[in-house]
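@channel anyone free to eyeball this complex?
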Amino acid sequence: MKILLMGHPNVGKSVFFNRLTGANVTESNYPGTTVDYTKGWMKIDGKDVELVDVPGTFSLDPKDKAEEVAVAMLHENRGALVISVIDASKIERGLYLALEIIEEGYPLVIALNMRDVAEDKNILIDADKLERILDIPVVSTVAISGEGIKELVSRVKEAKPVDVDDIISNATKAADVGAAGDVP
Amino acid sequence: MKLSAEERWDLIDRISKETVTFGAYRHTLTDAIGELTIKPLTGIPIAIAVLYGFWSLFGSFAGTLCTDGFFVKFFDGYWLPWLQQVFPGQGNWFYVIMVDAGGIESGEFVLSESSFESFGVLTSGLFLAIGVVLPAIFIFYLMLAILEDIGYMPRLAVLIDTMLHRIGLHGYAIVPTILSLGCNVPGVAATRILETKKQRFIMMTLLAIFIPCGAQIGIMEEVVPDLIGWIMLYLIIGYFIFGYILNKIVPGRAPEFLIDVPPYRRPLARNIGKKIYGRVTGFFKVALPFVLLGCVIVGILYQMGVIQWLGGVLAPIFVGWFGVPPETAGPLVAAFLRKDLAVAQLSTIEMTEYQMITSVVLVSIYFPCVATFAMMLKEGWKDLLWALAVLAVVVFVYGGLIHLIGILLGVA
Amino acid sequence: MTEESLPSSPSIAGIYFALLGIATVASGLAELLLTASGSEFVYGILEIPGDIFRGGWGGFVVLSAGLLYLSGARNMVDIHQFAKVVMGSILIWIIAGCDIFAMIAESIPGGEDGPWLNTLSGFIETYAPPYSPAVLLLPFSLVVIYYVRKRVFLEGGGRNSS
Ligand SMILES: Nc1nc2c(ncn2[C@@H]2O[C@H](COP(=O)(O)OP(=O)(O)O)[C@@H](O)[C@H]2O)c(=O)[nH]1
Ligand SMILES: [Mg+2]
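replying in thread with the prediction:
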């Protein structure tokens, strides 16, 4: 099995990669440090799994050479599972890429990273609800302190492809429930 | 099933309405400081302060403490005299290459006094590599890693953005440029974040030509400390002039680019340590062998008279067109292989300050070092050939221009 | 909005940083003027540098620090104003830090003909006065840390600043 770490630039993918594989990929606080992919090995339930630190990309329609590498990486690995790393303080932009990958039929897990930063900005995310709507595992993490990484790894096997139609109907249902809850 | 971009945003909108609550936005002190460092009125003085600090610590650590404080003493006081004694075959070609080229005074072979003059692989070569370059790149990468991890770099990029737009690059080009100040190799790799082929080509060419690497800066600090300001100034001006010209003549687009400015963060010692370790070991594995091999080749070519011969052939150009003394021809030719060695050689030649500035600038804009050359080759040989063509033109034109400026100022 | 429209009474902190700002601006100007005239000035424990790099470039930074203090000292409750004061101090720390690091770098080696390491007395002598204005201003600039802590503490309590 192969797992791809994907997400926007500067969301913490390399920190995850280093933590999970014990490798030494450069992590920097500016977008664009990872311009090529790096492979490493990690263990899930005692099995060796290949993990790839993919360069950051904003969408699946590449704008520069580093993004081309990222998109090509995804398309060359049809059978791969994707950990979509999202900056929780910029969740909407992150979801865009995640949805694109879901639409292409890849099984996905979402790591809502930088929970600490989001908290500082007073942004609260209901991860459970998000999980119910998307129907895939969503784990809040703080990569630099390691918070949530164990849970993320343990839930990787729950990843599965989903149909966007289901997501749309889930979102509609959630909205109805929410509206019903608001009216006493 | 696939959605259109619009449908996707619409869906995201609905999802986030259900799951995300935005509390009152609090302006933290870090945010406010972040804004100060980006607004030009306050940001430019701050950038000037940061560069000052960078430069000052660089000089104190690499120059005063390491090189002058310990390495010069070790190499000149112990290592060189010891090797001069114990190495067999004083004066023969092998001795000359490995230890000391010395000099001929009134028909006799005399030993050199310092590791700057001996030009042996084991003396000058090791001294420059370990005693000068290593402390320079260590402190450079340490400070760079701290600035990177704090998150200052993208802000600097935004500040410089307008200037770089003039030369067809967006603010992000400052990242490859600054990385190149440490070593051109990661700089070339970092050009991949630029969007179009045109931008990458311009950036790569400018880097290879105008950005001196940490090794070179360290050596300039050591041998021509009073002139380094002028040399850097000429290089920066050249970077912008030729960037502007290249932007006009290279076909292609140079689109806008939105920079994502991350918040300031506290740097992690572990991460910084890791970066330094990686880069310093990289230096030992990649750069050091090149430095020593370069010294060997330069030594052999000198022994065979190739460099003297080439120097003789090219001397009229150097003297007439660039306005530097004929003795510089040798080092200027040798600079194709080893810039650091060439700068050290130049520093021992008698010439005016302006000639020194000119010749060191020439050495800097010369051919990229072998490692950079290999990296550029990896990015595509066509671009490399074009870059070399540009390089040849630039050396010729800019060298002449500097001479002309000197004549107009009455100093050359 | 409300903060700005209220006539802000000058706080102790405001007066303090305004005075520090004046002293800093004066230091920066002195360094720039001396550099322009190409001389150096030593008086008591004060030594104003006059070389291009330290006096010119560094002097400009000191001057900027002073201007940041002066412009930030008014109405410091506003986070943007306060940030200027903090930034002014950071600039002083950069310059003073570099001056001090230069002394450290000089104090350790034993000199060209001396032993490897400096003698103890030589080591200590390097740190004797005179000092640059930035180093003398350093202790006064540290006061800002107190206000940063106080502010963080207050912000942690009530979540409703600007
Ligand atoms: N505060 C905070 N910072 C993080 C977190 N994860 C990563 N970072 C920082 O974000 C920056 C970018 O991380 P990096 O792994 O290089 O991002 P990549 O471009 O996605 O590979 C680095 O400075 C990290 O230290 C997190 O959960 N919280
Ligand atoms: Mg990365």
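from a first look: The longest strand of chain B covers residues 20-22.
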